Amino acid sequence: MSINTVSIGLINPKSATNVGAILRACGCFGGSSVFYTGQRFRYAKDFHSDTKNAHLHIPHIGVDDLLSMAPAGASTIAIELVEGATPLPAYSHPENAFYIFGPEDGSVSQTVIDDVDDVVYIPTANSLNLAATVNVVLYDRLAKSHYMHSDDAIKQSRDNNNNLRRTNKD
């Protein structure tokens, strides 16, 4: 499943568990690549949470500067709790997007906020875990797309442990 082009940028992630879950989210919701900065994650690539082995087919590359890695023609979008940002429910996702997320224990820098095309926030009572934030954004993108809603889509998405069907009650 590919919904246009979707790349993820992670600022200095500290947790291989979160990055594994982000790779799995990319596999589920159509993310094509993950770029990350910082040293904390480069040496902790134990993907226990990537139970679908998305890391084997989705590139995840350590870089020095996320904005320089934005794919050609991609709109850059920071996801952060920033005053004046667009709430996710009201946001129209661009076809070619590079979403940038801050670290688990910090925020996207003011420099990045100033340099991106859009800033979006997820309305919530508190900040979300990094992997949860990526999942919510990628799901929102898919839900707002022209994704095929059908039994064929369900069959394609589920794993071998699920062969359930809903039958009509008469």
Automatic annotation (TrEMBL):
Pfam families: SpoU_methylase (PF00588). GO terms for cellular component: cytosol. Keywords: Methyltransferase, S-adenosyl-L-methionine, Transferase. One of its GO terms (molecular function) is RNA binding. Residues 7-139 form the tRNA/rRNA methyltransferase SpoU type domain. Transmembrane segments: none annotated. One of its GO terms (biological process) is tRNA nucleoside ribose methylation. The keyword rRNA-binding does not apply. InterPro entries: Alpha/beta_knot_MTases, RNA_MeTrfase_TrmJ/LasT, SpoU_MeTrfase, tRNA_m1G_MTases_N. Belongs to the class IV-like SAM-binding methyltransferase superfamily. RNA methyltransferase TrmH family. This is TrmH family RNA methyltransferase. It comes from Alteromonas sediminis.
